[in-house]
Specification:
Blueprint (H helix, E strand, L loop, with lengths): L3 E4 L5 H10 L3 E5 L9 H10 L5 E6 L4 H11 L3 E4 L5 H4 L5 E8 L15 E6 L14 H7 L5 E3 L8 H8 L3 E4 L4 E3 L2 E2 L1 H14 L1
Helix pairs in contact: 1-7, 6-7
């Protein structure tokens, strides 16, 4: 099965369009406190330019359900990604496809996955006080164990130099990258995007 590709932390139209032209499957827009945060109005205008068949994912951290639903409607999001301490009961109130992010430190962190009935689990590196985009990897053996619970999206410190190794080892449903294809937070490097996608496709 082909490994899907999601590029997260999109803030500029030119980055979104370039990534789409290179064949990414999904683009992520961060609506929480982050150097890559984007407001709903800007995201809505940018998303309108994205060609069809590229999924649009909204990333939220411990946000109220009213705000999430408002932004999802306004921006026409295809999927919602929850990257905080959201409970299964909260997540079940949304009628879009859901990705739940789990920040991984040890095997104990995997125990919570079974409580979430979602379309995919995104595994990211645990860094105290930072919800994502850290550029740090975690033990990929934990990602292999997490596959018993369903589809795994591998994240955390991936870049053009290590993503092929990660795919060969974990064989995840998808990979997610943000800081690994940037020149600075929120500004994507098109050469790195191209190299990342080529590495994923070769690994597959």
């Amino acid at each position: 099965m082909r490994t899907r590709i999601k590029i997260c932390g999109i803030t500029r139209s030119e980055d979104a369009l370039y990534a789409a032209e290179q064949g990414v499957d999904a683009l992520g827009f961060v609506f929480s406190k982050s150097p890559r945060r984007i407001d709903a109005d800007t995201a809505r205008d940018l998303i309108w330019e994205i060609p069809p068949l590229v999924s649009v994912v909204g990333v939220f951290v411990d946000e109220t359900d009213e705000i999430v639903k408002h932004i999802a409607r306004r921006c026409r999001l295809n999927m919602l990604q929850f990257h905080g301490s959201e409970k299964p009961e909260y997540i079940s109130t949304f009628n879009r496809k859901i990705i739940k992010a789990i920040r991984v430190q040890s095997e104990k962190d995997l125990e919570q996955i079974s409580h979430y009935h979602v379309h995919a689990i995104l595994l990211d590196t645990y860094v105290d006080g930072i919800n994502g985009g850290t550029g740090k990897t975690f033990d990929w053996n934990l990602a292999i164990k997490a596959k018993q619970y369903g589809r795994v999206i591998l994240s955390g410190g991936l870049n053009p130099d290590n993503v092929a190794e990660a795919i060969q080892k974990v064989k995840p449903f998808a990979v997610d990258v943000s800081s690994g294809v940037e020149s600075e937070p929120g500004i994507k490097d098109h050469n790195k995007i191209k190299s990342f996608i080529e590495a994923v496709n070769k690994a597959g």
